[in-house]
Specification:
The protein has a domain at 32-139. The protein is 13% helix and 24% strand. A hairpin with a 2-residue loop joins β2 and β3 (62-66). The strands form two sheets. Strands 3-2-5-6 form a four-stranded antiparallel β-sheet, with no helix packed on it. It is of the alpha+beta class.
Length: 180
């Protein structure tokens, strides 16, 4: 074989091995000491605290305990919330006294190509202040992806002429009386 063909084969195989090395190095696997969850997720531990302590905490509508507590959230390997079928992940704090306000924090999960939020290290609720205007309504689905196309105009339905049925018909002619 000629030197040119040998050099071409070495270059081809070298580029192939380099591409394979880049492909294998780009596959991210979590460390062995990380707790794994369903759907390829990993566990994140979030500190939840409130002022005054003892507020009742709910995560996605389920009671998880009173503050201060550590909440385990299963998220994606890149540090964002995982889509388990909901548009958002909700953490609510319910007050213990009458002069306190209920609080809520909502995090987007990325369902149907919506944005997704990173899992926070901690969540803090101030029960003595009224809830600021939330980004998302309490326990209502997120509006979902937005439509960015041209506006859609609806026209009234096409007026069909009478009769609406175009199948076989039977016609009877009745002559006026006395004109036989």
């Amino acid at each position: 074989m000629s030197d040119f063909r040998i050099m071409k084969m070495r270059l081809f195989f070298g580029a192939g091995f380099a591409g394979l090395a880049v492909l294998l190095a780009s596959c991210a696997t979590p460390p062995n000491d990380v707790e794994r969850g369903p759907h390829g997720t990993i566990a994140y531990y979030v500190q939840v605290d409130a002022t005054p302590p003892g507020a009742r905490i709910e995560a996605n509508g389920e009671y998880v305990g009173n503050t201060p507590l550590t909440l385990k959230i299963f998220g994606d390997k890149d540090g964002t919330f995982h889509d388990f079928g909901s548009y958002y992940y909700a953490v609510r704090a319910l007050p213990l006294a009458t002069n306190q306000y209920p609080q809520a924090k909502y995090f987007l999960t990325g369902k149907n190509f919506t944005p997704e939020d990173h899992v926070p290290k901690s969540v803090y609720f101030d029960m003595t202040q009224p809830q600021p205007q939330p980004n998302y309504p309490a326990y209502a689905p997120h509006p979902g992806p937005y439509y960015y196309g041209p506006p859609v105009y609806y026209a009234p339905p096409y007026p069909y002429p009478y009769p609406y049925y175009y199948g076989p018909t039977f016609r009877f002619y009745v002559a006026p009386h006395g004109h036989w």
